[in-house]
## 1
Amino acid sequence: MIKLYYDPITVNCRKVLAGFDLVGLEYESVKMDYFGGDHKKPEYVAVNPNEAIPALVDGDFVLWESNAMLQYGADLTDAATVYPSDARARADINRWHLWEASAWFPSCYVYLVENLVKPFTGSEPDPDVLAGEQARFDHLAAILEARVAGQNFIMGDEVTLADIAVAAPMHLHAQVSLPLDPYPEIRAWMSRVEALPCWQKTDVVPLLGL
């Protein structure tokens, strides 16, 4: 059976947990303590030399990168509705996965660190850092706002792996004060994602005591 190393409180682990639930993939859980530094221990670094979680082990096959795990899980379960085999549809989903990892996650992560992680660890948010991120966030949010306008999900009427990936960096949007007020289409789309059973099952708010 597939073995999944994860801490359910992190963005990318929550993404994979929700995605695997969406496609119905079973796996063996190996829970880790991110803040305790489990991802830096030698036995785990042997699995993922990036010192990051999650990581997946399927026999002699080791996979990192959360979006690659989503794609692999969907292929293993023949979840064609959420990760279609049509070349253009799949390329579109892959495009959003790459956008999320390279642009959207780093921007959202600034708010997560400043408004949640720092207070959680006894530090104060840096208003200059938050102010400096605003322009990049607004540029990216405008792209997503335009995409989801007038449709239920990123690819249209039905949820796909694109929604799981792009929503993941926003999963604590209220707690991290993500500046979403100017973006009604994103807020409506996120509400639809949050109504999905796979999203509700992987809610981290109770785990964090927020």
Note: Residues 3-76 form a domain with the Glutaredoxin fold (CATH 3.40.30.10).
## 2
Amino acid sequence: MIQVYSIEGITPVVHASSYVHPSAVLIGDVIVGPGAYIGPAACLRGDFGRIVIGEGANIQDTCVLHAFPDRDLVVEADGHIGHGAILHGCVVKRNALVGINAVVNDNATVGESAIVAAMAFVKADFVVPARTLVAGIPARVVRELNADELAWKGGATRQYQELARRSLASQRATAALAEVEPDRRRISAGEVLPLTEMRRRKNSPEENA
């Protein structure tokens, strides 16, 4: 049973094809669209303004999302919000990625297919141009993203869309085993390399021979 709270008669909405971990907290005016993934200990507080999570978006573990009063916080379709990120009163456009522990502040916009680097701080009112990488405190545009990086982002997001389906089908609360069983299976979630490893492989002499 997920932790869902109404406030002033407004109750969160979660599409039946989305997965919300039972430890996540959804409060008030939160709308989670189809095929989304909301991870463990994520907190979506729609007690000031509306929070909208688009189709196929993922909000990973320990993320905090909070809308500014009378404004919408929106993560559009295929948005990808990394572990521990904080979004406050902002808009993340279609297919954009916000990295681990990044912060996106009030009225900021992360453009379509853009990437906010891990630990970056996107200040209030800043507009991240589409298909660019921003990094730093405060975040600044580093460069445009290349086709390989955009493809990598798409693959990572598809993994989370599949995780939503896998979790709906098979994730259950249970007791831990006391010992590792013989021939213990590994979880196979498909191959998406870390971005740094993808770049190394792309630039290795063997790959270019």
Note: Residues 196 and 202 are 10 Å apart (CA to CA).
